[in-house]
Structures
1.
Amino acid sequence: MGMRELLVIGRVAIRVPAFVPSYTQAPSSFSSPAPVQLQSPAPQGGSYSAFIQPEEPEPEVVRQRQEHRAEKIAGRDEESKKEREETIARAGRGIDKFYEEYNAKKERAIRENKENEAEYLSTLTDSLSSDTTWSRICDLVDLENSQFKMVARAGTNLTRYREVPLKLRKEGDKALGAAGY
């Protein structure tokens, strides 16, 4: 290699070779003409002189501005880092709170369901052992002291449908199917 020149672009200095080495084409096993040599023209001494500048010291104002800018960027980065950590911590607390509330609600629902189930089973066994089938039907349908809940066509009289279960209930154990199952 020959002498190298210094190429300065902006604030970056690069050393470049004074000439580019030649490359030869490798001969192949096939018959071919003589190898071709490629060579770039070497730059002359004055061709890069416009880009080569001696390094000048930066003015004090520029240096102070760059330092001030770097401090502001570092401050913003630090503030952003703190804000991110606070957000992550707040999200973690929110997730913990959610699962605490969720588990408490789930435990309460399980407890209430067990209590309701026990109450339902006790009333079911009590009603099955004490009443007749027709009294249980009247309790479920609630025929007494209320308007009949079924929607009927205009002009249709549904009093007979209410009277049949009530009559069978009054008959007690003597009614048809009152013994239950």
2.
Amino acid sequence: MFPKLKLTQHYQQGSALIIGVFVLTVMFLLAASLIRIVGDADESVNMEVWGTRALFSANSGADAALAQLFPINGTVANCANVSSTWIPPSNAVGFHN
């Protein structure tokens, strides 16, 4: 009935195996690149958190120096009165000594 059909099926034996290996290889490469992208994004978020903490720490130090320079009682202060070190209060919540 279809004499050429048997001939084309004979030549196509094993092509599904080649296509399967190719698809698996492509999927593996896509998964590997996705894992790398997610890892890079995670590292970027960590760096952003560390940068924000450093900024807030620097602002806290500047605020502590300004509080010594301009006290609440309104007395005139001198820049020499501002100490270069800061000791956190012992009863403050959030400071780990």
3.
Amino acid sequence: MNRGRGARPSDGESGEPSSGAMRPGRADAAPCASLAGRSVMKASIVDFSGLCTSSASIPTVFFRFSYRVFGADRRRGAGRRRGGRVGERSAHRGTSGCGTAAMNVAAFAERIPFRGASPFASLGAAAQAALMRSASVRVLAPNEFIYMQDDEASHLCFVRSGHIRLSYLLEDGSPVLFGILPPGDSFGELGVFEGGSYHDMATTVGNASIFRVPVAAFRALEPAHPELTLALARTIARRYRAYIALTRSLGLKTLNGRLSQAVLRLADDLDARATYLGREVPAVGGFVTQSDLGLMARGARSNVNRALKAWERDGLIAIQERALLILNRKRLEALSLEEGL
């Protein structure tokens, strides 16, 4: 679990930081890696002194600290480190906020694969074609930053392949993982709708690619296709409901309650299935690590590991090829309902 210096985990236990799949041993350099544990806090003492400047505010200092811990310096190299936050953002924007490869969608006659539940899936053929002509494809490396929190909102994005993490930084610099998006989902909508900045942070999970529609191009299409504005507004409303659900689940007192909500929410969002003993069950893929679950459930990775093992013994879940299979959804739901959610 991520916490400030000297704080204790919310579920009352400490754990060494480590990224892993549903079973221990998997290394993962996710930007939202847990900050819990002595080894990371020792690193924070070394790095923190070099982040403070005479003009830096406390939230900015914590932002720089968290950004370095997430691995951006290691990923971008020395050029990423120069100049503190200014240098980091300059390097980020030097690639248009994305990876190195770009393609025009219309040139390949490719369609944006909206998910069935997405309001954009209900667009008419003309509106979809117009949106497709304005889009480009960006191919991204694992754990690549797509945009940073508070960056100027320049594009509306859709997941083309792979998965995207959405997270945000609190005022003290600690990250909260909001969700993991599958292909066909959109993100960055609120910043586009407001015409301001992004309110979250988007990073890739493994290799991924996205469709990007420039804000100016989207606005230019709205007079001829007003359904685009309606789809954007409905998407923001869905995202708002999801934020409320997350806030309520984080208010649960026990890790079991918070973790069960996180697992069920991920299973619903990813909408994946797997076969277990001859029947199809909801599944959360192995690309979702225990550290991810800890960031979603406000718990240390070691405590998440113990909870998952207990659930496996009790027959609530099964682990198969690093994927988490939900065998008894009602019992998982009861873990949070017992607390009056």
